[in-house]
């Protein structure tokens, strides 16, 4: 009988984990965005604003409060001045881990850009790039345009004798390369942001898997309730992550495949909860009493991605209506996380 109960519990854990991974994935088919093209730019910007609101809401309303939760009960036990110092250490630790997550993501992004040959083009998205480059960027554009004009004049003079002058194509291709390299560098920088968000999402899914595993240890009803809460939380999160990946240069299919890969984190978390006796690790991490760095570190990653990679994209020049929709999208992401926090 006990063996049958354990088997049913394990099956329920696995089913719940697959559900929270697959259901949000199929929602992505309904989003009418194929790529980061001008045709889909307006909708993509609104989705990005929703993503930034969701990431910030998740960090400040879900992850950080859960990390602080174990320490929020102690001050009530010891009224007076002395209690504030006893709880200060753990709270300070949570804050430091949030900052560590931000710094770690910054270091990783700078390292990847350095390896790829980036030299200070961190503000390539938006209008800020032109201001930081100053006259140097304009001079390079003028030189390339002059070279283009000279090559076009040579082609006109040559007329149909392009076969005789085989080097003319080389002259034509030459001036275009600097611009292409700039665009490639910009696309490379954006992809780094997308991959950083995937890393944070992977860690977040790991904690979701731990929470589901621990909840089913406490009973089938608690497990189902936790699964539904995580599922409601994952759907807006998945939509936001999808928008960030598309903005990073991925096609719709590539973004969906990468999103599906993050399900490995949830499966690993559930497996970890299964392998630990009584699901202790899962319940501790889910409530914030376990390894104290997991939730705040992930929150720091979300804050970094939202403020450094996503919000600057919303500073592009847009019509008043588009700007209003973007602000409403950001608020919508925050409100969604507020509603989910009340359900938890």
UniProtKB/TrEMBL annotation:
It comes from Acinonyx jubatus (Cheetah). The chain crosses the membrane at residues 12-31, 88-108, 260-281, 293-311, 323-343. It is a multi-pass membrane protein. Belongs to the ZIP transporter (TC 2.A.5) family. KE4/Catsup subfamily. The keyword Signal does not apply. Residues 117-130 have a biased composition (Basic residues). InterPro entries: ZIP (IPR003689). GO terms for cellular component: Golgi apparatus; membrane. Residues 139-151 have a biased composition (Basic and acidic residues). Its main location: Golgi. One of its GO terms (molecular function) is zinc ion transmembrane transporter activity. Residues 117-188 are annotated as: Disordered. Keywords: Ion transport, Membrane, Transmembrane, Transmembrane helix, Transport, Zinc, Zinc transport. This is Zinc transporter SLC39A7. It catalyses: Zn(2+)(in) = Zn(2+)(out). The keyword Disulfide bond does not apply. It is found in: Golgi apparatus, cis-Golgi network membrane. One of its GO terms (biological process) is intracellular zinc ion homeostasis. The gene is SLC39A7.
């Amino acid at each position: 009988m006990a063996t049958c109960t354990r088997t049913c519990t394990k099956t329920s854990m696995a089913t719940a984990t697959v559900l929270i991974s697959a259901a949000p994935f199929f929602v992505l088919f309904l989003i009418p965005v194929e790529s980061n093209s001008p045709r889909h730019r307006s909708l993509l910007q609104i989705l990005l604003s929703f993503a930034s609101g969701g990431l910030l809401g998740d960090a400040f309303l879900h992850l950080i409060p859960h990390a602080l939760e174990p320490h929020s009960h102690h001050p009530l036990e010891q009224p007076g001045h002395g209690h504030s110092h006893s709880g200060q250490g753990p709270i300070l630790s949570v804050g430091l881990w949030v900052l560590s997550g931000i710094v770690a993501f910054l270091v990783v992004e700078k390292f990847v850009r350095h390896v790829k040959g980036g030299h200070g083009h961190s503000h390539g998205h938006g209008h800020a790039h032109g201001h930081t480059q100053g006259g140097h960027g304009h001079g390079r554009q003028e030189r390339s345009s002059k070279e283009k004009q000279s090559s076009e004049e040579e082609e006109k003079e040559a007329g149909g004798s392009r076969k005789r002058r085989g080097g003319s194509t080389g002259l034509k291709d030459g001036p275009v390369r600097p611009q292409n390299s700039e665009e490639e560098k910009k696309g490379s920088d954006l992809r780094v942001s997308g991959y950083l968000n995937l890393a944070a999402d992977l860690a977040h899914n790991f904690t979701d898997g731990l929470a589901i595993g621990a909840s089913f240890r406490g009973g089938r009803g608690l497990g189902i309730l936790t699964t539904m809460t995580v599922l409601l939380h994952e759907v807006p999160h998945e939509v936001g992550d999808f928008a960030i990946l598309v903005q990073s240069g991925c096609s719709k299919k590539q973004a969906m495949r990468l999103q599906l890969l993050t399900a490995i984190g949830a499966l690993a978390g559930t497996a970890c909860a299964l392998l630990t006796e009584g699901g202790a690790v899962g319940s501790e991490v889910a409530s914030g009493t376990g390894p104290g760095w997991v939730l705040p570190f992930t929150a720091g990653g979300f804050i970094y991605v939202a403020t450094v990679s996503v919000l600057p994209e919303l500073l592009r020049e847009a019509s008043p209506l588009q700007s209003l929709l973007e602000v409403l999208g950001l608020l919508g992401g925050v409100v969604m996380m507020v509603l989910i926090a009340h359900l938890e």
